[in-house]
Fold these 2 entries.
Entry 1:
Amino acid sequence: MFEARGLMVFYENMLALNNVSLQVEAKRIIGIFGANSAGKSTLMYTLSGIILDMKRKEEMAGGERITVLGQVLLEGQDIMGFKPSRRARQGLVLCPERRRIFPESTVLENLLIGGYLATARQKKETLDYVFQIFPALVPLKNREGGFLSGGEQQMLAIGRALMAQPRILMLDEPLMGLSPLVQAMLVRSIREIRNQRGITILVSEQYARPLIPIIDYGYILENGTAVLEGNRQDLLDNPDVRSAYFGV
Ligand code: ATP
């Protein structure tokens, strides 16, 4: 079980997350939906621990004050004080918004960088798996990441995250800017990853519609507050949610 309790994040005096709590059971796909600026990325940064790095950098640079409160619990242990690298070793892996692949490294190099925490055996096995679920990457192995299309970069970003051996994989807006066809392919892959690898997946998006068929549970974030949560049907049954996030 992966859990967040009462997360509050302030950027200076601006409240970006307001008392957000989540409960994530193993091997589920959980959707986090919200408009621009709702707090989706801040939530992912807080769960993965990257917010602590941001906070420290800001402090060193004399920049804005970032305040983080609440608990992040993994199997009952509060890991809020743990650095992102330690959380990653425990299986909490973030695939950040806008892909963030290394543009000058090849596809293969990008994947191997993702596997820096893995054993040689895990690296080999996972590399084979990544090329199996994303066969489009096979002929691109030696191509520089920067020359890939948006969809290929997203496959690479997910592949790189898989190389880190996640138990809980967080995908921040993986469908952003991609065509409906590519989105549908990625959505199928996300479901396969959960089914075949038993990885718990948290996925954020502005629009819920492409993800609705695969989520087990979802949260709606508005201005940093989780205003609604529920299973697929609960979300679909809510008229405000239907029009705002599903376009139906
Ligand atoms: P998007 O879909 O645009 O990525 P989001 O739901 O991921 O949005 P966040 O990026 O988490 O939202 O932003 C939540 C709020 O916090 C926004 O109002 C944003 O402007 C603000 N914010 C995010 N990062 C910072 C920062 N480093 N300093 C100040 N404010 C920030």
Note: The chain has nine helices and ten strands.
Entry 2:
Amino acid sequence: MKWSWKLGRLAGIDVHVHATFFILIAWIVLSHWRAGHSLASVVTGVAFILTLFLCVVLHELGHALTARRYGIGTRYITLLPIGGVAMLERMPRDPKQEIAVALAGPMVNVVIALGLWGWLAAVNALVPADQLSVAGGPFLERLMVVNIFLALFNMLPAFPMDGGRVLRAILTMRMGHVRATRTAASIGQGLALVLGLFGLLVNPFLIFIALFVWIGAAAEAGSAHMQSALSGVTVGQAMLTDFHAIAPNDTLARVIELTLAGTQKDFPVMAEERVIGVLTQTDLLQGLRAGGEHSTVNEVMQKDIHNADIAEPLDAVMEKFQTSECRLVSVTSSGRLAGIVNLDNILELLQFQEILQERET
Ligand code: ZN
């Protein structure tokens, strides 16, 4: 994610913090200073929010470590002011696994809340709930209440909340993945609407959350739509067959010539009939800035390349684009280069398919 910094590594997963998170900290400092005009209340406020976000990290780790049990890695965890995001490499296809991964996060908050409750009850420190407020009351008890709230809030049956994923998985068992996602997304957006209206009357912060839920639901519906359009299509149908390849010792001046003469922006690099790298327009521009037009392709190309067989389903390739920095996939047919495919190709194909499908219905 742009605008985020790495905080550290937990269980082999990078934890990032987003720049907007510091706005939240600044807001906490300011509001506590206004309320108490004492350094102590500011320090407690910031300590509380940091401890709360530690719970959020543990919640995300719950998702990530459960996904790992099913062989799914997590690229990173990012902390945002509204909570955390665990960026899984992919979602499990099996609905039962999706339910387990989705439930693992809120379960962590339940366990934390139970632990705190057990401790507070044991030392006889529980105060009645009506003596608690957002900024007042015993630290640990407030933390317990917030963890209960986190578990409940995340179980709302709306994307991108964990409850939305559970709902989708349950629906998937009845109606298939694509229709289930569409239905779950509609329910999510309906809920967002209610939440937003409620927010207008009660608390403006809810409007902000409603917006976040609305966008999350729309994104999920969009990706399900794309999946249904891509299903049954092979890489061979979308690939570009009319393209130029370049050699590793071509100069960048030659690539400029080719770029200007046609519409191709990304080039496969071939040596002895084999694709050994890829030169995208971004690589070209960076190479030009660093070494000028006499640099060779070999010096600036990406050597980490992805390859697909001509008969492979297109959605598998789409996943490669979405989960890695990869911009161009070379397509082979019985080992020989048959074409290339990039995101533009796939989007073009989607557009055509959509129009043709609309005409049919
Ligand atoms: Zn979660």
Note: Strands lie at 4-10, 13-18, 74-80, 83-88, 267-271, 274-279, 306-309, 328-333, 336-342.
